[in-house]
Amino acid sequence: MAKIEKFEDLKCWQAARELAKLVYNACENGKLAKDFDTKSQLRRAALSTMNNIAEGFGRGSDKEFIRFLEMSQSSAMEVKSMTYILMDLAYLDEQSVTFISEKAEETKSITLGLIRYLRSKK
């Protein structure tokens, strides 16, 4: 694996950034735009997915990085979980919910792949 010099080069961070963008755009539409608590929670989970990767990258040790990556993938699953209530309450159209859910799952999978790689280096 090539040496990664900055967190922006990480595939998991790139996916998390896309997830955050999808979430932020979705929060401006439909009933979700008016539900400030749900919108806030969804945005915070998406931001946490992205920012924990960056923060962990800056920690300097694989052990710390893995800990933050674990938090990141958990936040991605929080976003995915929230898509069910978004669908149940018809806060967003089905296509938007599906895009967010799939991107959250993709982000989690890529992040878990990096965790497995870092653990295998020992």
Radius of gyration: 15 Å
The number of strands is 0
Q: Please tally the helical runs, counting DSSP H or I stretches of 4 or more residues.
A: 4
N to C succession of SSEs: HHHH
The CATH architecture term is Up-down Bundle
Category by helix and strand content: mainly alpha
CATH-level-4 superfamily name: 23S rRNA-intervening sequence
Beta fraction: under 5%
| Broad shape | elongated
Domains, number: 1
List unreliable stretches of 5+ residues.
none
> Which percent range fits the helix content?
over 70%
Alpha carbon gap, first and last residue: 15 Å
Account of the 3D structure:
This protein is mainly alpha-helical and 122 residues long. The chain has one domain (33-120): de novo design (two linked rop proteins), CATH 1.20.1440. The chain has four helices and no strands. It has helices spanning 11-26, 36-57, 62-88, 94-120. Helix 2 (36-57) runs antiparallel to helix 3. It is elongated, with a radius of gyration of 15 Å. The two termini are 15 Å apart. The model has no long low-confidence stretch (mean pLDDT 95).
